[in-house]
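Action item from last meeting closed. Structure (77 res):
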């Protein structure tokens, strides 16, 4: 029987993001160390927006503003 690995605080938290234009991206990785505290998941928005800016610069296709953002559901094998 396989053992489950313990969650590492330095790991990643996955988010599903919906943009104002209706597009959606799933399982966006955000470092777990950036989350928590009094701000909760709000730092994830800043991190994902920064990723989107970098992607837009490289691709030349701008990404719209984020409408909603929720943690991805855990997947069961």
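Sequence:
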């Amino acid at each position: 029987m396989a053992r489950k690995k313990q969650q590492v605080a330095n790991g990643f938290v996955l988010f599903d993001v919906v943009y104002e234009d209706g597009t959606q991206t799933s399982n966006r990785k955000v470092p777990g160390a950036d989350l928590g505290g009094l701000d909760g998941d709000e730092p994830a928005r800043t991190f994902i927006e920064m990723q989107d800016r970098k992607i837009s610069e490289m691709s030349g296709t701008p990404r719209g503003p984020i409408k909603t953002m929720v943690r991805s559901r855990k997947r069961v094998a």
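Note appended to the action item: Strands lie at 12-19, 24-31, 66-71.
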